[in-house]
């Protein structure tokens, strides 16, 4: 009944894309850049590891770490003693960070060394990270980080107790200044190179999971859960 | 003939490890850190993608990029128009960078959310990157970057011509302030959690290569080279 549908009050849709800024517009290969929200989300959601950059004593630091996405927010956790989390804590100005996620999808071998490349999907998020203090938001963030690695796992694990929560810092980074970059397809050889005798093409790459290895002390009666077989 | 051997002048061996510094000594999980040269090299050599961090207008930037290792030097290349390479160029002081390489080897699922982790091998290199101008070193660097992706490939591709070389910037980062970090093994569950009904263990992860896909315009007479089958 179209009449009824047309009368429904629909919530305002978030913009379909992120607003490009000076630092999210690439200086090269602009045709590979995307600001589409769904594209960004899908690249983030296919990952659980990010590389988090921050500045310490004027110099850049890049550390690999887990992250979780909840809507338009990314969360990173760590020991309250770890450097970026300590730097963000109690700092009302937050911590300037760059959070980058990269998937390699293929090795691109062209006839010319110059046109060698990778097929990849990456997301770069610029912004300011703030320490999360609200207990409920911290709980949601910690669950999201576990579920980012293995969807569904947070419900099948003992939640953090008071002591563990006290030892864990959580920082939040909003998805505002964001871009994705994607390369797909075969090599872009120059026309005059097509006849060269070198193999040209793509070697696809993807992460592969092997059969889960139970802990030595796991009760043999506990079977591999369905959410692991889904990997 | 031991006498002869004892009389040989042996070149000074490079130190077996890198000297730890304030920023390569981790604030946590110190038992996972290593400064052993062979360990660092093996982690770097198993990779071709790094995350390069630098500071732009006071804020951190982290970009995924290819790299190559030649002895104690890492090389990164890019368009002469790309940001980090432009920043390093013509700057006698070089560009402060942090270059990080990470391999994920397994998802570590503990009974407690708190003890979830990854098995991983990472290397973090701090230092100053300088633009490489010497033509011979540039050639070696560009070959190394191609061979880091597919060992042996640089000999089976057309080398860069003058125009391509002019469009390519190369930066060098020496391996001086370097650390590796490695986690292996099963989950570190607390003793009081062992009896909980949650599956606990490790899901191994590794990159998997699929069969090479020839370019659409590849002469069918050109077979897949041995160095690709070796992947």
UniProtKB/TrEMBL annotation, chains A, B:
Ranges annotated as biased composition (Polar residues): 1-10
A Pfam family it matches: Pyridox_ox_2
Protein origin, superkingdom: Bacteria
Region described as Disordered: spans on this chain: 1-34
Protein's name in the database: Pyridoxamine 5'-phosphate oxidase family protein
């Amino acid at each position: 009944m179209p009449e009824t549908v047309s009368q429904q009050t629909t919530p305002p849709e978030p913009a379909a894309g992120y607003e490009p800024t000076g630092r999210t517009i690439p200086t090269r290969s602009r045709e590979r850049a995307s600001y589409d929200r769904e594209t960004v989300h899908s690249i983030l959601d296919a990952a659980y590891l990010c590389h988090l950059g921050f500045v310490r004593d004027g110099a850049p630091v890049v550390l690999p770490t887990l992250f979780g996405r909840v809507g338009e927010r990314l969360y990173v956790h760590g020991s309250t003693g770890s450097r970026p989390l300590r730097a963000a804590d109690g700092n009302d100005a937050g911590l300037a960070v760059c959070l980058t996620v990269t998937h390699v999808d293929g090795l691109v071998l062209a006839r010319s060394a110059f046109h060698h490349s990778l097929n990849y999907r990456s997301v770069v998020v610029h912004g300011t990270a703030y320490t999360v203090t609200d207990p409920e938001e911290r709980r949601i963030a910690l669950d999201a980080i576990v579920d980012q690695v293995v969807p569904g796992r947070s419900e099948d694990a003992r939640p953090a107790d008071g002591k563990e929560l006290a030892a864990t810092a959580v920082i939040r980074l909003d998805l505002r200044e964001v871009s994705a970059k994607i390369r797909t397809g075969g090599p872009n050889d120059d026309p005059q190179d097509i006849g060269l005798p070198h193999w040209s093409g793509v070697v696809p790459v993807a992460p592969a999971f092997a059969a889960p290895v139970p802990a030595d002390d796991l009760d043999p009666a506990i079977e591999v859960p369905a959410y692991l077989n889904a990997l």
